[in-house]
Amino acid sequence: MSEILSEISTCVIEGNVDDIEELTQDALEEGLSAEEILDKGLMPGMDHVGVEFKAGNMFVPEVLRSARVMHGSMEILRPLLTASDVKMTGKLLIGTVKGDLHDIGKNLVGMMCEGAGFEIKDLGKDIAPDEFVEAVKEFEPDVVGMSALLTTTMRSMGHTIKALEEAGVRDKVKVIIGGAPVTQSFAEQIGADGYASNAAAAAEMAKKFVS
Amino acid sequence: MQVLKNNYLVNATPTFEVLSEDEIEAIYFAALRVLHETGVRVYEKEGVEVAYSGGAIVEDTTDDSSLVKMPPWMVDRALATLPRKVVVYGPDRNNRMELFKNQIYFGAGSDTPFTIDPYTSKRRRATYQDVKNFARVAQTLPNIDFHMSLGIVQDTAVGTYDRWQYLAMLEGTTKPINITAVDLDGVRDQLEMAYIRLGGKEEWKKGPIFSLYIEPVSPLSHSEEVVQKLLFASDNDIPFVYTPCPLSGATAPSTLAGTAVQALTESLFGIVLSQLRKPGAQVIIGGLMSNMDMKTAVYCYGSPEMALLSAAYTQITKWLGVPEYETAGCSDAKMFDEQAAMEATINISTAALIGGNMIHDVGYIEQGLTSSMEMMVASDEIIDMVKRIMRGIPVNDDTKALDVMEDIGPGGHYLEHDHTYNRFRTEIWRPKMIDRQVYENWELSGSKTYRQRVHERTIEILETETEPILDEAMYKELRRICELADERHKDEELDVDMFS
Amino acid sequence: MSEIFEGLSTAVLEGDSKKSVKFVEKALKQDITPQEILDKGLIVGMAEVGVRFKRGDMFVPEVLMSAEAMAAGMDLIRPLLIETGAKLVGKILMGTVKGDLHDIGKNLVSMMCEGNGFEIIDIGFNAEPEKFIAGIKKHQPNIVGMSAMLTTTMRSMGHTIKAIEEAGLRDQVKVIVGGAPVDKEFSERIGADGYGSNAPSGAELALQLVGAA
Amino acid sequence: MRTNYKVNSGTRFRMLSEDQLEELFNGVLHVLENIGLEVHHEESREILKKAGAWVDGLHVRIPSYMVRRALDMAPRSFTLYARDGNPANNIHIGPGRAHFGPGPTCPNFIDVETMERRPYLKSDVPLVARMVDALPNIDFCESLGTVNDVHHELGALYEFAGMFPNTSKPIVAWSYDWDDSAAIHEIAITEAGGQEAFERRPNYVHYCEPLSPLVSTFEALDKLIFAARHRVPLIFTPCPIAGGTAPITPAGIVIQGAAESWMGLVIAQTIQPGLPFFMGGVYSVMDMNAMILSYGAPELSLMMAGITELAHYVGLPLWQTGGCTDSKTFDEQAIIEGSLSVFFSALTGGDMTHDVGYTESAMTGSVFQLAAMDEAIGYSRRITRGIEVNEDTLAVNVINDVGPNGHYLKHEHTRRYYKNEFWYPNVCDRTDYETWDMMGRTTMKDRVVSRVNDILASHQPSPIKPETEKVIKKVLEEAEERVKDHD
Hints:
The complex is a heterotetramer.
Chain A: H1 3-13, H2 20-29, H3 34-54, H4 60-83, E1 90-97, H5 104-115, E2 118-127, H6 129-139, E3 143-147, H7 151-166, E4 174-178, H8 184-189, E5 194-195, H9 199-210
Parallel strand pairs in A: 1-2, 1-3, 3-4, 4-5
Chain B: E1 15-17, H1 21-38, E2 40-42, H2 45-53, E3 57-59, E4 66-69, H3 72-81, E5 86-89, E6 96-99, E7 105-108, E8 114-116, E9 123-125, H4 128-140, H5 161-172, E10 177-179, H6 184-198, H7 201-205, E11 210-214, E12 221-222, H8 224-235, E13 240-242, E14 247-248, H9 256-277, E15 283-286, E16 290-293, E17 298-299, H10 304-320, E18 324-327, H11 338-354, E19 358-362, E20 364-365, E21 370-371, H12 373-390, H13 397-400, H14 402-408, H15 418-421, H16 424-427, H17 439-444, H18 450-463, H19 472-489
Parallel strand pairs in B: 2-12, 7-19, 8-21, 10-11, 11-13, 13-15, 14-16, 15-18, 18-19
Antiparallel strand pairs in B: 2-4, 3-4, 5-6, 8-9, 16-17, 20-21
Chain C: H1 2-13, H2 17-29, H3 34-55, H4 60-83, E1 91-96, H5 104-115, E2 119-122, H6 129-139, E3 143-147, H7 151-166, E4 174-178, H8 184-189, E5 194-195, H9 199-209
Parallel strand pairs in C: 1-2, 1-3, 3-4, 4-5
Helix pairs in contact in C: 1-2, 1-3, 2-4, 3-4, 4-5, 5-9, 6-7
């Protein structure tokens, strides 16, 4: 397979932000399709990163670097991919729920999922149920991720899911929730599709839902 | 242009102090008074002679001993010629310990009758193989800087076990070694072995590859062997640790200050005698100062008083300008358990903070009667944690990161910032056996306790094949010294087999 | 009468030598036999001390003060006990063996044994086998106690026992050994009659060997 | 007779030099004056503006003179009182005095019977409080968890209602909102004998938490204002994560964290000059692989030592952190990490050290960890007590009495000192091997478990006043009423 694809993988693994755009351009000029670059260049790189991270040999800041590299390349590839309507890994809508300003966990999940090839829309923090609903209609995500760090704000996860139902978009999306006080049983209780105990687990779960 | 700071004092490391300078002096002058007015018992004629001709008062001479009293000026004179820095090398000269002021080195303890079998976890008498294995573990652990036997070899002749112990250690490690000797002949043989290891007597002059452990008996008593070793070590440029083990409340006053006074008196006698014998003789003092637990009558190795006294004594030795022999990484627990973890964590912290130069007894449990590889492997990680704290808090424009805060602003995060990316590997300490997974992942990986992980690591170290350190010929030559010693001393042995 | 015994045992328990002497004298005036004073007063007090120490409710210095109080009382009645030919608790010859200057363990055991009514003959430290033998011949002890702190000097225990045998005195005495590196197995290997892992258990062992416990 | 004779009362520990502390201090002033914080509370912004701060939307910058003034107004030394007037349980905050206690809000708890991890329940609260009341080295009380089996808005109130009758040691209370705080306060002042009596002898401290980096949330400030108006001693401390929500360098996290606390300080002192105020918090690193805020990292002790010294440099008491662990079970790791942070807390003299008894990175509370740390604290306190040096302790004459080869066991000097000079453990074993073997070869864990069971079986705290019991019942009913149609 082409030299440049493995260079792209390495570029992702090493978190080499500076070279990725040029490499992506070169790859396209070499006549490789956006899909090939994604599947045979970027994704193998990110998969490797995922494995190394799990094994404890890579660390969050490095994974985020790789995610950023991936992102840089996707900026160029995405229009082409949509044009040739190739199915991408998926779309993820994410936000910290109403009343909660803690969003470090949410940010981690967002970046991990981006690394996994998702297209991310991050609503930020203190997001009301109707804001989620609007965004779902507009962005049409496959997965909605909600984060809460307080036992009080956990509740608005339930409210948000209700709101999605009432707006009739609940079945269009999978809902994943997380955050320190959140548990599996709580996730079931409020009718979420899944609970993740940490960012890496969330990314894996999101991937499962779209594959 | 960049303006540099001046008149700006930096704590490059944390600073820790038990005694004020006035208190140190009070203890020192009290010790001078005891040495002059109470005196010490010396059970060795030649030693008494040396002291007497050096100006000491000799009284109350019996057939086996004399009371020796030394006026303060003898101490002052001795301190003037006492080296302030002692260097001990590893057998292959690749490792070295520079013992002075603020240098910190951690290492094992020696001569425990019992050890915990790393496989069966049962307590039994230590053997040659145990001592060799401990040396191999010490060789592997990054935070162990010097080594001691951590076991009495008890499957060889008893009267000459010290030579076998040294051989076992030479087989296992190239880190500096602190030896023990059953008597003067034992020191001679081990020095001979060191010459062989070095490839000649002349090599020793370039720097010693072991120091000798010598222990006078508290209170204020210096036995025949002890004094003979001291004189021989002085004559032959062997750095020696002259360390009493006063037991506060039993063989020393029950006040920690009083125990320090007595211990210092005992060490000062060693210093004076060595300098009289050979000005410039290399002495390390200090050692194990602890209390008797008055509920169980045992010698505490894990008590806070032990940590506190050792720290105080270290300050005294720094003030005197003598290298210090500190104590840490040890416990009164009978196995490596939570108690051992607590006692080791805190006494390692105090020893590191105060800066005892040669910090020994890592791996001791059960009041120093038993050694434990798990204790040693765990202590290595504890030392590593403490060393992270010892790096202190550098304060400069880069570490203050005001510009970074400006970049991030309220509500942002630092995960992706270069300031984080470029520093996380050095700023954030990485555990080896300490576990930080989230609960679910910990369960998935078998819900192991720390003890289980330490055990696995210990076995892993033991079963990792390593190149033999001694070649066949060298080994045979060294072994020969041990065998000759056995031959010479065979009639001292009991006709019954003592241990196995 | 019972209050005298109680006063005496309390005096021992509280480590009050003066009181202990006072009560013994009082008892003797009331013609209480020395044997009773010993059994119902002194020993009762020390027994309680033993229990409390084991429980961790008493500290070594307190135990030693009680031992002193006990010994003070004993000194008064010992001659009388001998006159009346009454059975004494026993005599122990104590020493730290040749080559060893570590004395504290032996001292602790001696004091604890004294507290149990034993008469102690202490031959000190660095004691040659000959010194033990001379001591046995001179004092006719029921028990010989040996202490060693080093594996090398542990051998002297063996040598000493052997010497005692060769002197034909072995069957006159029970031999008990102790010290940090010593354990039960070793004590059996060198043919000792018993081993104490700590001072109180050394004293208990002594009592058992003279059949007083 | 001596002269010009200096002694160390206790040990002396310093992480930073005066010059370094001054530089950090100026760093904090720079952040407050030039970078500023987000303040999500309109009334607070008004108060700050009136007092001279620059307000631009949510964004507030505070000129350093305001900060210095606030620092001057806050006391360095004051007393927190035992509700039952038991002087032994009072906490005197002041230089060189370190106190210890548990933390709040762990979702899980180690069940005392089964030793299994499960959600924290209402019934666990009194149990934790009684442990705190009984343990000699635990000085103040928090609940070690968030109650899961009551209405989700009433967890904090039920915790306080459960703790208050079960320990007379001062309590550190958190709450969800103003009403919550008001209910808690009513209980406390009833016991104290009214608001005025409470102000003279406060029996609890109010805890609220700003958000890193540089954000003050509505709830935090609303509760802060409640506390300030009612003169409740206040803890206003963040929990910055190095490399996550704060700079990864210790100097950087100390500066940012201090700025976050001092925003609250300025508001509090403006409303209530002289209000007792604690800065500090939980300063630690994110484990860059496990992605948790580490409660066992050596950096915790390092950074907390830094913030403690900065607090004492500016004359504020500090809310320290220690006795906690990332371990998921009661094992050697839990004790290594807990003992390390406890020991360094004791060395720095951080005024109140919380989170003693946290396991699993603050996800699970454990009274077993708490009881084990009680031992580690006693151990550390013996060390920080230091060595007393005077004619009598130097014992020159005693050494002379005893002489070479003698012993001190029976000496009068020994009898005078052995009890106070030596520390005696509760759950550490110091018997000889044979005895330990005979007694069943217990580990420290075994002994901690039986100590916990003994205490829970026997210990009875002093009762609260009957009227306080009534008030507790009343405020709980009112609260249930208040929230019954919130879901």
